[in-house]
Amino acid sequence: MSNFADKENRRKKQSLVSQVASNSDNEPIKGQESIETLEGGKYMPDPPKAQEQAKTNVTEPKTEEEPKKMGRPPENRETKKRVSLAIMPSVYDNIGKIAYVDRTSISEIASQLFEQYIAENMDKIKEYDSLKK
Fold first, then answer.
1. Binning pLDDT at 50, 70 and 90, where does residue 60 land?
2. Is residue 53, in this structure, part of any structural domain at all?
3. What is the mean predicted confidence (pLDDT) over 114-127?
4. Are 45 and 22 in contact (CB under 8 A)?
5. What are residue 42's DSSP bridge partners?
6. What percentage of the chain reaches a pLDDT higher than 90?
7. Are the CB atoms for 32 and 41 separated by under 8 Å?
8. Total domain count, the chain
9. Of 51, 50, 18, whose CA–CA distance to 29 is shortest?
10. Cβ-count burial 81-120 (b if 16+ within 10 Å, e if not)
11. Does 105 have pLDDT greater than 90?
12. Where is the sequence biased in composition, kind Polar residues (predicted)?
């Protein structure tokens, strides 16, 4: 066969395969008793008994009482909050250099400084909490 005939035969087979894929009832296409698959076998629809069994094996949707348990379990730790701070460019550049030498990030340096500042001023936090109550 020529190259053109080979391409035409492949195109016809792909067209038939796409028709079968879109056929939801697994019925043979009109005018086709069987369709060749890529492995060279024959496409035959499932017998009615197998279709009934497939329908009965469908799982019921979960009720609202059952919580979804997908993914990793939640960890008991505080998550970071993203904030925007205005810092002079020269200060930011120098902090970046220090962070590079220390093999850390600017965010970690800022967190450490804030934690240190909080530890030094715990009396002010207690005063604030007593005023708000």
1. low
2. no
3. 96
4. no
5. 36
6. 38
7. no
8. 1
9. 18
10. eeeeeeeeeeeeeebeeebeeeeeeeeeeeeeeeeeeeee
11. yes
12. 15-26
Host domain of residue 126? 107-132
- Tokens representing 64 are 């609202």
Token pair of 3, please?
Answer: 């190259």
**33 within a domain of the structure (yes/no):** no
Q: What is the mean pLDDT of residues 26-54?
A: 54
User: Is 71 within a domain?
Assistant: no
User: Which has the closest alpha carbon to 30: 11, 16, 42, 41?
Assistant: 16
Region 108-129: mean pLDDT is 95
User: Residues 63-86: what's their mean pLDDT?
Assistant: 78
Residue 94 resides in a domain? no
Q: Which amino acid is at 116?
A: Q
The DSSP result for the chain, as a single string, is: --HHHHHHHHHHHHHHHHHHHH-TT-PPPTT-S--B-TTS-B--PPPHHHHHHHHHTPPPPPPTTS----SSPPPSSPPP--------HHHHHHHHHHHHHHT--HHHHHHHHHHHHHHHTHHHHHHHHHHH-
